[in-house]
Design a protein that fits this description.
With 293 residues, this protein is α+β, with helices and mostly antiparallel strands. 26% of the residues lie in helices and 15% in strands.
């Protein structure tokens, strides 16, 4: 006798209580509250909510930070082309030291607060700037999200400087409260940088900014190389239900070009490789523009 399926299609797992109502954006959940209090970062969460960025000082000690610095420099030598010696992409799996960073309890508490449980690691990138380098224009990291950006954050980036962020080192610049505008800056606003301030902190700190926060960076005037680790997480919500990564270039060769697009093969997301040093920049503007269509 075949088994009789009482419910068809089979329903979701009923042993787990379902949440039907989303909490207020930036509310601090029970689980985050507990760990934030214990880790003494509760006030930082409120600061992040109000200002769009926050700094956790002294998360990692000097010797660990030095190891991160040396590992990024070594791995950046494996990058090909323009990024050789200047950045190292897709760091998870390339050295176990990065697992320690992304599982750090303070980092995880801030990430859960901003982008929820089950957030996805979006990018783990080591960047190196020589003297004179930098001066990155004001932008938002969620540049492929249509405006108005939602009340709740979709993305958060943590930056771990491997030397003290002084003005001469070429620190990140941030415009406090710019996340409240819920859109990316316009050309005139990028030029004016009104309200921009440097993020100044000790090496081994974690500076966080939301995907909606306007930021850039100051040029490096001192000698030596500025080495930073960037760690970005995003909400899980935009993942596709089905995963077609197994359909390779050969399968796609004679297919209608729109199929490439719907499988995400001609936007910049997912284009980093272990030797690329970053994403395919030739596709970024096209991706950003599509998101605003
Ligand atoms: O490294 C910095 O100071 C900021 C860089 C940045 O904003 C980015 O790469 O998106
Ligand atoms: Fe950025």
């Amino acid at each position: 006798m075949p088994e009789i399926i009482k419910e068809f299609p089979p329903g979701p797992d009923k042993s787990v209580e379902r949440t039907f109502i989303s909490p207020e954006p930036f509310s601090i959940s029970e689980s985050v509250r507990g760990s934030a209090k214990k880790l003494e970062i509760y006030d930082h969460l409120n600061f992040l909510k109000n200002n769009g960025y926050c700094i956790l000082e002294n998360v990692f000690d000097d010797s660990f930070t030095e190891n991160i610095r040396n590992t990024i420099i070594a791995l950046s030598e494996e990058s090909k082309g323009n990024f050789k010696g200047l950045s190292a992409a897709m760091l998870l799996g390339r050295d176990p030291i990065f697992e320690e960073v992304i599982t750090n309890k303070k980092l995880q508490a801030v990430v859960e607060f901003a982008v929820g449980k089950g957030a996805l690691l979006s990018q783990l990138l080591g960047g190196i700037r020589p003297q004179g380098g930098g001066n990155f224009d004001i932008h938002i990291d969620s540049a492929w999200t249509p405006a108005p950006l939602p009340e709740y954050p979709l993305m958060i980036t943590a930056c771990m400087p491997c030397e003290d962020f002084t003005l001469e080192a070429g620190p990140t610049k941030v415009i406090p409260k710019s996340h409240l505008k819920k859109r990316q800056p316009l050309p005139e606003e990028i030029k004016n940088e009104e309200g921009a301030i440097p993020i100044l902190c000790k090496k081994g700190s974690l500076a966080f900014w939301l995907g909606s926060t306007w930021h850039g960076n100051y040029p490096r005037s001192k000698t030596g190389r500025r080495v930073v680790l960037h760690i970005s997480f995003s909400r899980l919500m935009m993942r596709t239900i089905e995963n077609y990564d197994f359909l390779d270039e050969e399968w796609l060769r004679d297919k209608h070009p729109s199929i490439r697009t719907m499988l995400g093969r001609d936007d910049f997301l997912g284009t980093s490789t272990v030797t690329s040093g970053g994403t395919d920049r030739s596709k970024t503007i096209k991706t950003f523009n599509r998101s605003h269509s």
